[in-house]
């Protein structure tokens, strides 16, 4: 590997200053990218939490409204789950579905 030889001290200082400046700019860019990504993640997380709270309130209000408007016989089953596929509560969903079908059958047979 050959070293670059400079003819003057001014050229050497300019090259070293330019290289140092370039490295500092790269470091600043990396730190800024990290800060922006971290800030964006925090912002999105807080927005999701507040949106989830609003949606939960809307669903609760809608459930109350539906229950108050429904005529007898009526029955409401609420199965809290971590997602809309009920992956963590699939057994409870299937059990409630079967119980609901049996209840509908019993109500239809009693009329």
What's the short story on this structure?
This protein has 111 residues and is mainly α. It has helices at residues 9-69, 90-109.
List the helices and strands and how they pair.
Elements: H1 9-69, H2 90-109
Distance between the termini: 96 Å
Order of helices and strands: HH
- Helical content stands at over 70%
Q: Biggest sheet: strands, sense, closure?
A: none
What shape does the CA trace take? Answer: rod-shaped
Q: What oligomeric state do the depicted chains represent?
A: single chain
The helix-and-strand class reads mainly alpha
Q: How much β-strand is present in the residues?
A: under 5%
The total beta strand count reads: 0
The Rg value, from CA coordinates, equals 32 Å
How many domains?
A: 2
The number of helical runs is: 2
What ranges have pLDDT less than 50 throughout 5 or more consecutive residues?
Answer: none
Overall mean pLDDT: 89
Could you explain how this protein is built, in words?
With 111 residues, this protein is an all-alpha fold. Helices cover 73% and strands 0% of the residues. It starts with 8 loop residues before the first helix and ends with a helix. The mean pLDDT is 89.
